[in-house]
TrEMBL record:
UniProt family annotation: Belongs to the bacterial solute-binding protein 2 family.
Annotated signal sequence range: 1-27
Classification lineage: Bacteria, Bacillati, Bacillota, Bacilli, Bacillales
Recorded GO CC terms: outer membrane-bounded periplasmic space
Protein name, per record: LacI family transcriptional regulator
Stretch list, region Disordered: 28-55
Pfam families: Peripla_BP_4 (PF13407)
Keywords: Signal
Molecular function terms, GO-annotated: carbohydrate binding
Subcellular location(s) per record: Cell envelope
Gene3D superfamilies tied to this protein: 3.40.50.2300
Length: 377
């Protein structure tokens, strides 16, 4: 388990930013504090002997009933995340019910309350915000229901929060863009607030602008909907008409793959091959788009959504089994560049052959989990 690496990479990013511009201190205070917390998070521990024992703990011998509550489920990243949840829970012989709140945080909190009343064995959260979810999550903890959250700002004792190290994700993509632009150019920023990971990525973007003052933001737009990629494509098409000449726009930073998909399609259809797109997140659909001939999508920083989901499930099972789990766990992100991919089409299953370090997480694995999986066959 290599929990210190994401925090270290994020801290390195901040050091690089600060080295270039001392006035960025205020902009990076927030992520620095967050990373300090991540860095001090202890590796997952277990009750004496239980992690190494192949004997299945009594608490997980029965099929577990799990509720997964997601803030918004759109695009292939979300679908691959959901598939990862289902696969891992199924391998352990449990059952997971996924509730999509359609970006309604009050509905998300209500789903958590319903899960408590149904006396589920565990709750998984995907995104959400503490100001809306904390009261309900605290009720779940008080009721003895384990909770593991992904990409949220919850800070509740006993609740494990997994994230993709959004600060490193943003920096990896932005740094690549700055290098490709040689530190100078006009860019478009596609972004929307209201989501914890997007807010974190924006902190790095604001610091990035100070670090690279010759890279100018000439336009900003973005919204989250059930048709985010299509909406982004339409907005990007309108922007290209507003800036019709080569050199008007050099690049687009799109810190969500739904944004990157829409922007890339608009740019390609307009024949504006001088504009490059730099994104965050990756899925099979994204890979196909990146590998298309003439695709403007140059790079993306990402983790494997299905692998993150499986990790989240394993932490939950460890909690049910009575094992100790960390308060915070950051998944190591990787940079995927179009130039590093082969001409033949690849999938998420193949990407590890071309991106150094990409692979399945070995965190939150107890010896008894293999025994539990074998019993389901």
């Amino acid at each position: 388990m290599k929990q210190w690496k994401p925090a270290a990479s994020a801290l390195l990013a901040f050091s690089l930013l600060l080295a270039g511009c001392s006035s960025e201190q205020d902009a990076v205070n927030k992520p620095a504090a967050a990373n300090k917390q991540e860095k001090t998070a202890e590796p997952a521990k277990t009750a004496a002997g239980s992690q190494d024992s192949k004997e299945i703990p009594e608490a997980v011998k029965k099929p577990l009933k799990i509720a997964a509550v997601v803030q918004l489920s759109i695009g292939t990243f979300s679908s691959q995340y959901a598939q990862g949840l289902k696969e891992q829970v199924s391998e352990f012989g449990g059952d997971v019910q996924i509730y999509n709140a359609d970006n309604d945080l009050s509905k998300m909190a209500s789903y958590v309350e319903n899960a408590i009343s149904q006396k589920v064995d565990g709750i998984l959260l995907d995104h959400g915000r503490a100001d809306a979810l904390a009261p309900s999550v605290k009720k779940a903890v008080a009721a003895g229901i384990p909770v593991v959250s992904f990409d949220s700002d919850l800070n509740i004792p006993g609740v494990t929060v997994i994230d993709q190290d959004d600060y490193s994700l943003a920096w990896n993509s932005l740094r690549t863009m700055a290098q490709d632009l040689n530190g100078k150019g006009e860019i478009v920023y596609v972004w929307v607030g209201g989501f914890t990971p997007m807010e974190r990525r924006n902190v790095i973007y604001e610091a990035f602008k100070k670090r690279y003052p010759n890279i100018k933001e000439i336009a900003r737009f973005g919204n989250a909907s059930q048709n985010t990629a299509l909406d982004t494509q339409s907005q990007m098409e309108a922007l290209l008409q507003k800036y019709p000449n080569k050199g008007d726009i050099d690049a687009v930073f799109a810190p969500w793959d739904e944004f990157a998909k829409g922007a890339s399609r608009a740019i390609k259809q307009a024949g504006r091959d001088e504009i490059k797109v730099y994104g965050i997140d990756l899925s099979d659909e994204d890979l196909q788009l990146i590998q298309e001939k003439g695709s403007p999508w140059a790079a993306t920083a990402a983790t494997d959504p299905a692998d993150v989901a499986r990790l989240q499930v394993r932490f939950l099972y460890q909690k049910v089994a009575g094992e100790e789990t960390p308060q915070v766990y950051s998944v190591q992100p990787h940079l995927v560049q179009k130039s590093a991919l082969p001409e033949k089409k690849v999938s998420m299953d193949d990407i590890g052959q071309y991106v150094e370090g990409w692979g399945k997480s070995d965190a939150a694995v107890s010896a008894w989990m293999e025994t539990l999986k074998k019993e389901q066959k």
